Amino acid sequence: xxxxxxxxxxxxxxxxxxxxxxxxxxxxxxxxxxxxxxxxxxxxxxxxxxxxxxxxxxxxxxxxxxx
Length: 67
Description:
Elements: E1 10-15, E2 18-23, H1 24-30, E3 34-37, E4 42-45
Antiparallel strand pairs: 1-2, 3-4
């Protein structure tokens, strides 16, 4: 997760005052994607298994890109 400006190739989600930007092609591979604020940072979960690469963990999110 990083600060970025939306591009034509991105999907943009506005959730609870936060704007999330994700590449459309990557989103199709990773959805559903959830983002949770954990008090000290964000935890991201998707359908992509990152456990072998030390990924970002998993959660059952309160903030989802599913509509």
